[in-house]
Design goal:
The chain has a three-stranded antiparallel β-sheet. Strands 1-2 form a two-stranded antiparallel sheet. Helices cover about 55% and strands about 5% of the residues. The protein contains twelve helices and five strands. Component of the SMC5-SMC6 complex. Component of the SMC5-SMC6 complex, that promotes sister chromatid alignment after DNA damage and facilitates double-stranded DNA breaks (DSBs) repair via homologous recombination between sister chromatids. Keywords: DNA damage, DNA recombination, DNA repair, Nucleus.
Length: about 325
């Protein structure tokens, strides 16, 4: 141990002797401050023993840590300079011990022991029965540490280093302005089909005739849309009925409105006066789609046994 540590130990011992002499001569002892000094003295003696023995094991490190934790608790009880002196002496000694333990720590990060490495290889490859080195065993382990080039396969044939054929640049041909010598051909004019022409279709006229007869039978009462267009025997005729009915709606022969009660669509009769008002108003378009599954569901839901619109013969 250094001279500084010896001098600190002598100072603490002298102070302890003076304290004990004072306690013997003074009635009642020195109170709580003397008890705190005794605690510091015991901690100092324990730390000094660890420093003198040069202990660096895990148990010694744990003891030093416990001394530091106890000192941090006792320092809050210090009220006199003498108590602070003993506390700082213990902390100084613990710091010296921690420094020595840190220097003695061997991390094996920068040191490489050649002899230990050779002994390890010999212990791995040495054969106890023949008392010789098993080089095959060592070579198999060592070969894994070397990088190998991938094996070459002739699956795609041999490689011939031939020069690639060069593509000859194509000669650019100047575009000449096209001069029309004959008459220009124009596309055939497509005449627009008016609403009147659409209404002349036989299927539309047939549907119109059936619808008017149904209105006469019901006294111009609204007709259920689905019961009118659904054909339980044919899906494609159901689609045709919806399609042909759209022409009648376009020509303001009938109108489809929702029922206020159930929200289902109904076909309404359009009078001459109402037709004039509809022509003046804004036209709206609606897209209706139906699938075979929906068609079957609607036929069952509305219990349609036979079509209201007979097929056109």
């Amino acid at each position: 141990m250094s001279n500084d540590s010896d001098s600190e130990a002598m100072d603490v011992d002298e102070t302890l002797n003076d304290t004990q002499a004072t306690n013997c001569s003074t009635p009642g002892g020195g109170g709580s401050d003397e008890a705190l000094i005794d605690i510091y003295a015991k901690q100092y003696e324990e730390a000094q023993k660890i420093l003198q023995d040069g202990l660096t094991d895990a148990e010694s490190v744990a003891k030093v840590g416990q001394l530091l934790r106890d000192s941090s608790i006792h320092c809050k009880k210090e009220k006199k300079v003498r108590e602070s002196l003993f506390g700082s002496s213990v902390l100084s000694l613990c710091a010296q011990i921690s420094k020595n333990q840190a220097l003695a720590l061997d991390t094996n990060l920068s040191a490489f022991d050649v002899q230990a490495f050779a002994d390890g290889i010999l212990a791995y490859a040495f054969d106890g029965e023949t008392e010789t080195v098993d080089w095959d065993k060592l070579s198999k382990r060592a070969s894994k540490m070397f990088k190998r080039s991938p094996a070459m396969s002739y699956m795609y044939g041999s490689f011939k280093a031939t020069e690639l054929p060069r593509k000859e640049p194509k000669e650019r041909v100047r575009r000449q302005a096209f001069k029309a010598t004959g008459e220009k051909k124009e596309p055939e004019k497509v005449t627009n089909v008016t609403a009147t022409d659409e209404g002349n279709d036989k299927a539309v006229q047939h549907l119109k005739k059936v619808l008017k007869s149904k209105f006469r039978e019901s006294g111009n009462q609204p007709i259920d849309f689905f019961k009118f267009v659904l054909d339980p025997t044919s899906f494609h005729r159901t689609v045709e009925n919806i399609f042909h009915l759209s022409f009648l709606m376009k020509n303001n022969i009938c109108a489809v409105r929702q029922d206020n009660g159930g929200g289902l669509p109904y076909i309404h009769y359009v009078s001459t006066q109402e037709c004039t008002e509809l022509q003046k108003g804004k036209k709206l378009q609606c897209i209706l789609s139906i699938t075979p599954e929906q068609w079957e569901t609607l036929v069952e839901a509305f219990k349609v046994d036979k079509p209201m619109v007979p097929p056109l013969t």
